[in-house]
Amino acid sequence: MKVDSAWWRKSLLAEFNPAFPDNRVMNPLLTKLQPYPFERLKQLFASRTPNPALRHISLGIGEPKHATPAFIQEALKASVATGLSAYPATAGEPALRKACAAWLQTRYGLSLDPVTQVMPVNGSREALFALTQTVIDPTRPEPTVVSPNPFYQIYEGAALLSGAQVHYVPSDPARNFANDWDSVSGEVWARTQLLFVCSPGNPTGAVMPLSEWSKLFELSDKYGFVIASDECYSEIYFRDEAPLGGLEAAHQLGRTDFKRLIAFTSLSKRSNVPGLRSGFVAGDAAVIKQFLLYRTYHGSAMSPVVQAASVAAWGDEAHVVDNRYQYRTKFAQVTPVLAEVLDVKLPDASFYLWAGVPAGWQGDDAAFAQALYASEHVTVLPGSYLARDFNGGNPGQGRIRMALVAETPECLEAAERIARFVREHPHKDQK
After folding, report:
1. Which of 47, 88, 273, 429 would be a feasible disulfide site paired with 301, CB 3.0-4.6 Å?
2. Domains and CATH numbers, the chain
């Protein structure tokens, strides 16, 4: 008798896992993931037709648009002939690890061992997710990850897929959007295994001072959790003094072993190479040793071609200074235009403006973004999409994030359109 193999396989899977659609066995933790902000934005705009007389300007996605430096492109091209003929090591080439360590010395005055305390990664996004899987022990009671709120959604997704729960910490607008760590109880800290911090922050642009770092290090010492410090915006800043980094703060406080601290940085924003997917982690050698073990099985080795371009990028600061100058010039022109109609000011750092919508819109940031898109063909991201309702409200509600990543004329035109829109539609019921 001929057996229908497809029917047999389907029946067998149904017997083992009848709860899943189409009888497929899937990770149930995937059901905990929320739609990504840009997918929600797409759905928000689906029912609206933008003004056809205006070209589209997007301030929604934080994707650098300044030109990639020519010398990085040349380094990439020059390595193609020899860089594609062998499997790369997960730990990265010694030349790249040394280049990363040398940058830490130049930028922060730190001396880290490039072999044990530095490791290349395929951009900070991939590394933030992977480190969470390395750190979290889901067999412990109520494994918890503490995250800022608002936040970069990878923090949440990485935590949930590791089997942990997320405790969200709101930022305080009255204190330059500083995270309210005091709102976290000792009971929560006691079950916390990983803490995410982002400084300069996304979306607020706030930079953590030394006193805040000191508090977090004391908590880490007391409760034993790892601190993951996301610093991908560290080279775009508007003060004379560069933002304080997590490793730098630890060193200033006498914590030279960087125990339970891992810093993440990236070339995407610093060098305008988001498509390169290149960054590195640095810090506690014991954590990095286990992280390397995980990544060896995860298959996260960086292409030798990308490594060659990365060595060139980390070794040059002139293009970083020029890039920072472009952002400073742009923000100096755009921010005053928007400040006339929105609650917004120049951030400490990053390339975002975190603005409050007009009072007449009753805190409805999604409706504001939708109406602005229809009227002016400008995309901004509702702040509530970057945060979660937790312990009394959504701290992103009533705000919008604007990514000033395009060239200055385009961002200035977008600002002028936004200003016009607000003046013509000061209230939600007038949209």
Report:
1. 88
2. 32-67+319-426 (3.90.1150.10), 75-316 (3.40.640.10)
